[in-house]
Design goal:
Length: about 250
């Protein structure tokens, strides 16, 4: 790979959480750029459908929040070049009303999963390949019911920077997304999805909703531009620049 950039031709990209949404689109774009793609997900049927769409070289069904399963997956891999992690979902609710086990799960599904993937991938990723993790921007605004989300949002950036130093010359980066029109967003918003889309189309500076393809393009750029490491890259269509929706 040349300094400053290149292509994915002949490289191997692993997408953890690659059966839908951002992960699926990242796998699709990486494949179009010439990479061999390995997809993982929790649901075997949905994973096989995604693999067929992307023409993935292989798949593995496991829960990315299970440290032992993550270790087994990486142990069985040949050398690879890039890992994209999109698995997981935000946890909402008042901190004092949330069961302690739920709070622990919320932290482990972000911080501990990130460290475990980095630990297990460190012996498999060929420098100057990269690990790309997903975070968010919404939690930067403190609000009632956002305590866990805000903590994770703030904590992921220094965690990623620390991992970039420990894993160098392997590169580690974080994508912080605002609202992205994915199946996960649909499940979280339910009947309010269309209203949220219209509100964003009317108010975002880009005058459209951010799509999984937009995030996938950024992920592939982080993989191919070898000057990028240890940083957080926002992609929200300018969502942080506008007032939050009234309640």
């Amino acid at each position: 790979m040349s300094d400053g950039g290149g292509s994915l031709q002949g490289q191997t990209v692993v997408v953890i959480g690659g059966s839908a949404g951002i992960g699926l689109e990242t796998g699709r774009l990486a494949r179009a750029e010439g990479a061999d793609v390995i997809l993982t997900g929790r649901h075997p049927d949905r994973l096989q459908q995604a693999a067929s769409e992307v023409n993935a070289s292989s798949t593995a069904a496991f829960d990315a929040n299970d440290p032992a399963a993550v270790e087994r997956f990486f142990d069985d891999l040949p050398p690879i070049d890039h890992v994209m992690v999109t698995a997981g979902a935000p946890h909402y609710g008042p901190l004092l009303e949330t069961d302690p086990s739920e709070l622990g799960r919320g932290f482990s599904e972000h911080f501990l999963r990130t460290v475990q993937v980095a630990r297990c991938a460190s012996g498999k990723v060929r420098p100057p390949g990269t690990l790309v993790f997903m975070g968010g921007t919404g939690g930067r605004r403190i609000g009632n019911g956002l305590g866990l989300v805000s903590t994770v949002t703030v904590g992921l950036s220094p965690l990623i920077a620390s991992l970039a130093l420990e894993l160098a010359p392997i590169r580690v980066n974080l994508i912080a997304a605002g609202f992205v029109d994915t199946p996960l967003s649909a499940s979280l918003l339910g009947d309010g999805l269309d209203a949220r889309r219209e509100q964003l189309r009317a108010t975002l500076p880009i005058r459209r909703v951010v799509t999984p393809g937009d995030v996938a393009a950024l992920a592939v750029h982080l993989m191919t531009n070898t000057a990028l490491t240890g940083a957080t890259y926002d992609i929200d269509g300018g969502q942080q620049l506008i007032p939050p929706p009234s309640t």
